[in-house]
Each structure stands twice: as structure tokens, then as C-alpha cells.
């Protein structure tokens, strides 16, 4: 989200400067130039620090972009430039519908339509042209929302509603990159349902599916905000805990496991170490999961690099 906003703000500012090349000198051009430079600076700030900011900051940023673009349309020296500047509002529509909930995206779209329509009409653009432009904005929002739905369904596990392995791998790459850049702690957890095959064989696959949904619902409601939970495949789940060191992650995992004593879970926890690759981190979690199973199952273990020099991998006990 931060990278996208950084791109939009930067390119919108540069586009605005290009639109002003043929504008006559004067107070309006000076004001618009300052606004464009401010947009570029904002883009640079989001690119540098945006990944650390809360979601509320991004709502403010998208709303501010609407105000900024509407003001630029209003200050444009002629109707043609007004329409050209109005096209920048597409950035707002795309960003809101791609990253925010449907309700929030609709609110941003409504604000964009109201602001742009007023600015265009005030700038001597005909009402019919302004309304036609609004229809284009609405259609872009609808299409983006549909594409987001299709993309999310490709990375979603249909049984549990969690992310699937593909979505997990993407999240892992993003969080690993962020941990390497900011030196923030990151822990990974592998969660395995013990003796799941016997559940299916004894009670049927419908009961096995119920167990998997129960595990997913329990953990989804207990993991902290910012955590990433996925169904890793079969009877195995995976969890990423940014900002959580290994011992704290282990305590969290043990607490959640204790909430449902009727379902036996074995869990392996590993903390990211500077220089680790994504595969190394997950191998460490898998090694810890292997330890949990060999120690009797229904328990959680933290990977200990001193106990496993070289982080050698062992096949998991099923």
C-alpha cells in the first residue's frame, strides 16, 4: 500500500508539472507548481517511511489526494487543463478500491466525484462533460473491485477462508523484505493437526473439514493485528508474526493451543535471523515442528539454533 501511494503521488506530481509547461506565468501557476512539488515530496515520504505507518494514515493520504487534485482542477488555467488534471483522480479511485473495504472505497469514490464535479463545473467545463467523467470514475471503481475479488479468490482457501499457500508465500516475501530493511523482529509458526488422517478415516472427511474450520476460526480470532494466518496445505497452517520475537510467539502459540484442548496441535516456532532467507526461516519452523512431534505431539517448540547447528532439516513426523 505504501509503495502504491508513493508511486501515485510521485507520478501525479510529475504529471502536473508537465501540464504546467505551457501555462502562463502567474499566481495560479506558482500555486500549482508548489502543489505538484508537495505531491512529489509526499510520494517520497511514503516510499521511505510509509510501511511503518498505520492504515488510518493511508485513509488520510487518499482523502488528501482528492482535495489536492480537486484544488488543482479548480485552479487550472483553462478547461482542457482542468480535464487533464481531473484524470489524476483515477489514482484515488484505484487505490481506494484496491486496498480499502467496499464501504471505505465507496466513501472515497463519492468524495472524489463530488470534489471533481464541483471543480470541473466551476472551471467552465460543461455539466454534461463533468457527469460523463463521473460515470467513468464509477466504472473504474467497479472494475477494480471485481479484479480485487478475483485476485483474492486465487489466494484464498475455500474451506477455511484463510489465505492459501500462494498468498502466504507472497506475504512471507513482503515481511521478510521489511524485516531485513527495518531490522524488526519476525517470527514464523507452522501448526499441524495431530493424527488428522485418523480423524478422516474414523469419522469421515466432513468431520475432518469441521476440525480444520474450527482451528482456522480459533486462531483467526486470537492472533494479534498485523499477523498473517494461512492454510499451508492439508492439515497444516502457517502464521507470520511481525514485530514478535520467538519467545513471545511461542507463548502466544501455547496460549491459543490451550483454548481448544479437544484438538491436538503440534507447532513449530522460529524467529527470523538477519541474513536468513524465506526458505531458511520456514525450515527452522519445520525443524521446531519436527521436535514438537518427536517429543510427544500436542505441544509447541521454539527452534534453537544452538541445539541444531547448521539448521539441518529433518523430515517431519506425520
List keywords for this structure.
318 residues; alpha+beta; 5-stranded mixed sheet; 12 helices; elongated
Estimated radius of gyration: 25 Å
Overall mean confidence score, pLDDT: 90
What percentage of the residues does DSSP assign to strands (E)? 5-15%
What gross morphology would you assign?
Answer: elongated
Q: What is the count of DSSP helices, taking H or I runs of 4+ residues?
A: 12
Helical content (DSSP H or I, runs of 4+): 55-70%
N/C terminus separation: 39 Å
What's the short version?
This protein is of the alpha+beta class and 318 residues long. 64% of the residues lie in helices and 10% in strands.
Would you write up a description of this structure?
It is a single chain. This protein is an alpha+beta fold and 318 residues long. It is 64% helix and 10% strand. The chain has 12 helices and 5 strands. The protein has helices at residues 2-19, 27-49, 55-75, 79-86, 89-99, 102-122, 127-154, 165-182, 196-203, 205-222, 246-258, 278-294, and strands at residues 186-193, 228-233, 236-242, 265-271, 300-302. It has a 5-stranded mixed beta sheet, sandwiched between helices. Helix 12 (278-294) links the parallel strand 4 (265-271) and strand 5. Helix 1 (2-19) runs antiparallel to helix 2, helix 3 runs parallel beside helix 6 and helix 5 (89-99) runs parallel beside helix 7. The longest helix has 28 residues, at 127-154. The protein starts with a helix and ends in a 16-residue tail after the last strand. The model is unreliable at 311-318 (pLDDT under 50).
Amino acid at each position: 500500500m505504501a509503495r502504491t501511494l508513493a508511486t501515485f503521488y510521485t507520478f501525479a506530481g510529475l504529471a502536473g508539472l508537465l501540464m504546467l509547461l505551457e501555462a502562463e506565468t502567474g499566481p495560479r501557476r506558482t500555486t500549482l507548481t508548489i502543489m505538484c512539488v508537495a505531491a512529489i515530496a509526499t510520494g517520497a515520504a511514503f516510499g521511505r517511511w510509509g510501511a511503518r505507518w498505520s492504515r488510518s494514515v493511508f485513509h488520510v493520504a487518499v482523502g488528501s489526494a482528492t482535495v489536492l487534485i480537486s484544488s488543482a482542477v479548480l485552479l487550472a488555467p483553462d478547461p482542457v487543463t482542468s480535464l487533464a488534471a481531473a484524470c489524476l483522480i483515477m489514482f484515488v479511485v484505484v487505490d481506494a478500491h484496491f486496498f480499502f473495504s467496499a464501504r471505505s472505497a465507496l466513501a472515497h469514490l463519492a468524495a472524489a466525484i463530488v470534489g471533481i464535479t464541483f471543480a470541473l463545473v466551476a472551471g467552465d467545463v460543461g455539466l454534461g462533460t463533468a457527469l460523463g467523467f463521473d460515470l467513468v470514475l464509477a466504472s473504474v471503481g467497479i472494475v477494480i473491485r471485481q479484479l480485487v475479488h478475483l485476485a483474492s479468490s486465487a489466494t484464498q482457501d475455500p474451506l477455511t477462508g484463510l489465505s492459501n499457500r500462494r498468498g502466504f508465500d507472497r506475504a512471507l516475501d513482503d515481511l521478510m523484505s521489511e524485516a531485513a530493511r527495518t531490522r524488526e523482529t519476525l517470527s514464523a509458526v507452522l501448526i499441524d493437526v495431530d493424527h488428522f488422517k485418523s480423524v478422516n478415516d474414523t469419522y469421515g472427511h466432513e468431520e475432518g473439514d469441521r476440525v480444520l474450520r474450527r482451528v482456522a476460526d480459533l486462531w483467526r480470532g486470537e492472533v494479534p493485528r498485523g499477523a498473517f494466518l494461512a492454510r499451508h496445505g492439508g492439515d497444516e497452517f502457517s502464521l507470520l508474526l511481525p514485530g514478535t520475537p520467538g519467545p513471545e510467539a511461542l507463548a502466544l502459540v501455547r496460549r491459543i493451543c490451550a483454548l481448544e484442548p479437544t484438538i491436538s496441535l503440534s507447532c513449530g516456532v522460529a524467529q527470523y535471523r538477519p541474513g536468513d532467507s524465506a526458505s531458511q526461516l520456514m525450515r527452522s519452523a519445520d525443524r521446531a515442528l519436527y521436535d514438537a512431534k518427536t517429543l510427544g505431539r500436542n505441544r509447541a517448540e521454539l527452534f534453537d539454533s544452538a541445539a541444531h547447528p547448521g539448521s539441518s532439516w529433518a523430515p517431519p513426523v506425520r
